[in-house]
Amino acid sequence: MARPGAVVVGGGIAGVMTALELARRGESVTLIDRWEPGHSRASSTDYNRVIRAIHGRDEFYTLWAREARLRWMELQAEIGQRLYYECGALILATQGHCHWEDATAETFDKLGVPYYRFSAAETAARFPQFDTTSIAYSLYEPEAGMIMAHRGVRAGLELFQRAGGRVERGHVTTDADERLVLNGKPLDADLIVVATGPWMADMYPRTVKPITAVVGVNVLYTSTPDGDASFDQENMPCWIDHGEKSFGLPSTEGSGVKAAVVIPDKIDLDNDERLIRRETLARTRSYIRKRFPGLVGQKVVDSKFNQIILTPDTHFIVDWHPKHDNVLLAGGCSGHLYKHGPVFGDFVAGVGRREYGTADRFKIAGRRKLSPAESPSGR
């Protein structure tokens, strides 16, 4: 049997978009996942994800996010499904802790990214859903919003299959030398891209695990009030609230208002059930009482337990395995990869085909923890 041209392991947003871009470059591509792409265990699951260019002083990700927005719009037109809602993104700058937001404004000015700066009073007038107590100011990015996450993965998969790509169900692991094994047999191809998200750490205990941490994030959806559309995406933006370690999205397609208080949680990827922790309910309700008085007393209508893999600097991983020169590692989402999906997949495909080298920030070696002021994620 002929050796496959390219294999992509992992059917989340990183793997699907990489497989799609490789197929569009003329490669014969097989995409392998343990479960059906879009499954509920994946980091790329859930209803939606924020897409915004706000990345502090980091111009690289700011430009990637701006390009990704256009790519998502193109994919939306191609697939004929709603993938993107442009409801805007609001960044709340907490009094005394505005370094990341200050840096974002400077980056936006330099790169010409449209935004508005509102005082606390102006924020409350423009977005009355928010209690702006403790807020120094806000940045509003109008050309931002949300991607429908599960739908985006499935749309990318459909386009990949239309381009001639092949999808297989299988369990890829590694041996003691970190060689890839599929269902107990060596996996071989001219190019193998491993995009298994948090599972990459256990697959590569020597190469990836030392520079990553896998954490869980509890997400709750709260009902909008009866007869009140003010918390729907037509009237409310996505938001990031670093001072409260929180973020969220307005109700979309009847989902309810999504809110998360980011307190990293432990997770056993293969054995834990995807259920939120009870203590998270109290923390999130406390946050909602503080920031959204109009939602006080509303019921939680849904919940998700997501997992992410964090690198020390919150930069992604796109680098060749140090011992296996046909294996390209692609991931390290650090909580902000999904929105970049189409651009990330395009970049990984180019690196995989040796069209160019990877970026220094994506290399495995030389990782260090960044200060909040340096970090593209602000944490």
UniProtKB/TrEMBL annotation:
Protein name, per record: FAD-dependent oxidoreductase
Names of required cofactors: FAD
Molecular-function annotations in GO: flavin adenine dinucleotide binding; sarcosine oxidase activity
SUPFAM superfamilies named among the record's database cross-references: FAD-linked reductases, C-terminal domain, FAD/NAD(P)-binding domain
Domain named FAD dependent oxidoreductase: residues: 7-349
Keywords: FAD, Flavoprotein, Oxidoreductase
Originating organism: Microbaculum marinisediminis
Gene3D superfamilies associated with the record: D-Amino Acid Oxidase, subunit A, domain 2, FAD/NAD(P)-binding domain
Keyword Signal attributed: no
